[in-house]
User: Fold Secreted protein from Sorangium cellulosum.
Amino acid sequence: MPCSRPTARSSTGRGAASAVPLLTCLAAAACSSTPPSRPPGLPPTPASVTRENPGGDAADPERAALERLLAEPWGSRRDRFNTLDVPLVDGKSWRRVRIWSHPTRATFRYGDEHYAALSVLYTSTSGPSDPDSCLDEFWAKNAPLADGYGVRLGEAQIIRTTQEIDGEVRPLVFKVLDGSIASVFASDDYAGAVAVYESWPGTCLVSVLAVKATEHPELARRVRDRWIDEGAPKLRWISGLSDAPKTEAR
Assistant:
């Protein structure tokens, strides 16, 4: 499977990230070298923390990267078409990527080792466009891909809540579950969630987060839960849009 790169198309490598990270999964890839590690228990030196390696020179860079996703403040990035504000912890450290054969509204990864990835999809629908209906449509379309990629999904939990946009309360639905993937490239576990929003009539807006949970599953679930509680509700169309944007993807 291809390792995502910040280019027009992902190039072949040792791992993968998909348009829907939870379903086609992100097989973590050793796409870059890592600096010599510090003694166990010490945080990474600030100079060693980079966008490519947010775990820096920590003895356990996966833990260090996940701890950053728990501790750093929220920032935001725009989608490829400058229409959506996408909330991201440690926002400047996420790299925008394109996923081969899976165009999205926006996809970002956290570290070259794929400690986390987030995709946003904005599509038209011929059926109802409420969040529950959009979730059903999304799942029916994408769940069959999972088996083909060697993904095994755990039991799902549905959470129905709301988000507030400029004083207006709107429904927000989550599908929360864990997954694992075993391939010739990697064997990894992920904590994931799908968020589905009320959007423009006739469209579906979906955001998908996957967090690497191979070595630290509880820590990964806390990162996911922080996104559910604090981040996902902040995703919104930029102010000033009077008409539905085109359902474009790259």
